[in-house]
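Might I ask for a little of your time on a matter of protein folding? The record follows directly beneath this note:
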Amino acid sequence: GFKMMEMFGLVEKEFSAVEGVSMEPGTFNVYPCYRLHKDALVSQPTKYLHPEGLPSDYTITFLFRILPDTPQEPFALWEILNEQYEPLVGVILDNGGKTLTFFNYDYKGDFQTVTFEGPEIRKIFYGSFHKLHVVISKTTAKIVVDCKEVNEKTINAAGNISSDGIEVLGRMVR
């Protein structure tokens, strides 16, 4: 594994070069926190982050909070786009509907989504910091919030992704 924050330049010595990002006090006022403003496009070439594509089993971990002024429209907490900027895989938060959706293309090339909802998902939208693990295997997508397993859903095995596009944090889904 590796630390995606560093790969995206979201560290104290580099964040000022990322347009639309500011640093704020974070958890326990010890760890820095980065606010993504509406004009932010936090991205890196996929070939830089995942030159071989994604493995069949992986976990993505986020420590974040949704602020009261966050738009109600869905946004990609993380996603990989192809060279035409079409989404290939990602995690979507819908602040209006209070849901979390994982999506990707399966091994047959079919687009698949699984949406998670309920009280343990809704709580991540109300301003506190939360730790979110999105655990992907060949057959399941599992969500863990604040070290508690919330739900697990069946998915088909993923197809490989193109490394010719970009990976993005916090992009509005329009």
